[in-house]
């Protein structure tokens, strides 16, 4: 906030600036990289929040007291209807959004039950092969940077 210093009105003194040392709030989140037996990648169409309507990896926020693994199991069950086993951390990305930064930890996951169905924050689910993924990327239907990030970390569908 910029304003005149007390008593500085019409004196020609420079205004002062209030600076905030507050860092953006970090929101820990998780996403799952899930492939089917044909090597297709599971994508969820976002039904709320940032990037509504775009396709992304399924996942969500880590709740207080949860581990990443617990959050990912819960989020994928709520969002996709699938039961998953969580594997290794593949990569982490940081996404700024309205004064916050989403710190998204992306893990390899294997589905071992349940029926795929959109739920919670997903309006649709889609298993995509390499051609379908490339088409979504080319038309701008993926969340920002998803294509580049998955390419960098060798996590593309076959």
- How would you spell out the order of helices and strands? EEEEEEHEEEHH
Assembly category:
single chain
| Main sheet specs | 4 strands, mixed
Q: Name the strands of the widest sheet in spatial order.
A: 6-3-8-7
- Determine the fraction of residues in helical runs and give it as a percent range: 10-25%
How many helices in DSSP terms?
3
Number of strands: 9
Average pLDDT figure? 89
Termini separation:
52 Å
- The gross shape turns out to be globular
Number of domains: 1
Low-confidence stretches: 1-8
Structural class: alpha+beta
Rg calculated over all Cα atoms: 21 Å
- Using the coordinates above, name the CATH class: Alpha Beta
CATH topology descriptor: Nucleoside Triphosphate Pyrophosphohydrolase
Specify the CATH architecture: Alpha-Beta Complex
Could you write a compact summary of the structure shown?
With about 160 residues, this protein is of the alpha+beta class.
């Amino acid at each position: 906030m910029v304003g005149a210093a007390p008593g500085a009105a019409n004196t020609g003194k420079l205004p002062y600036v209030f600076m905030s040392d507050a860092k953006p709030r970090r929101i820990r989140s998780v996403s799952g990289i899930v492939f089917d037996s044909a090597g297709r990648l599971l994508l969820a169409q976002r039904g709320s929040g940032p990037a509504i309507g775009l396709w992304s990896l399924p996942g969500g926020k880590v709740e207080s007291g949860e581990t990443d693994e617990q959050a990912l199991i819960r989020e994928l069950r709520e969002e996709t209807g699938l039961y998953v086993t969580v594997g290794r951390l593949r990569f982490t990305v940081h996404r700024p959004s309205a004064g916050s930064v989403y710190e998204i930890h992306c893990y390899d996951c294997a589905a071992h039950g349940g029926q795929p169905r959109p739920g919670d924050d997903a309006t649709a689910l889609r298993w995509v092969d390499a051609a379908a993924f490339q088409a979504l990327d080319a038309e701008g239907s993926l969340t920002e940077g998803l294509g580049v990030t998955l390419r960098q970390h060798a996590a593309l569908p076959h």
